[in-house]
Amino acid sequence: MKNLTTTLLLAVLCFTSCKKEAKTEDAEKTIKDSVAVEEPAPEQPLDSAAQMKAWAAYATPGNEHKLMADEVGTWNCEMTFWSEPNGKPEKATSTANVKMILGGRYQEAIYIGTMMGQPFEGKSTLAYNNASKEFTSTFIDNMGTGMMVGFGKYDEKTKSIELKGDMVNPMNGIKTPYREIYTIVDPKTRKMEMFDMKNGEEYKSMEIIMKKK
Q: Are residues 67 and 18 in the same domain?
């Protein structure tokens, strides 16, 4: 009889413990499920007046756009290229016609010249995004089928814009980063430097000295 009582007592304790563990697991599962389905609070909508004010600020050209407008005109470009670090430089020339478009919000430049004995034509755009507070640059030309896109900010101390992006190397199909520094040397001189990557190291691949006519 004593053995039977002991056995029943152990069974009750085991059953009680199992129920507690099951409840704990259910509680943890409920908490996890609650966290999993929790959604972020919806954004508070702006009233119409605030929306109009924000959009007007986004669409209105500012000081950075005036900086771009200073480039308007025709520029003679002396270009130097390096295909590899410490490689032999190659020279080329072109003319850039720069203008502002779409109400002074964007800069467009058309390049015409000769490169490697072939006619060269390129087109760039430069924008300053009032919302993100950064410049965006694009470039296309008749030497390829890709588009270069870079993003960066203006440094008042150095009077330069540093742009960073990436492009696909046509030799191996691998996307590689590049860096561009555009410097305002003086009112009639600009310098553009391009830096590419090779074997994991950055090197200067192009330099353009621009002189305004």
A: no
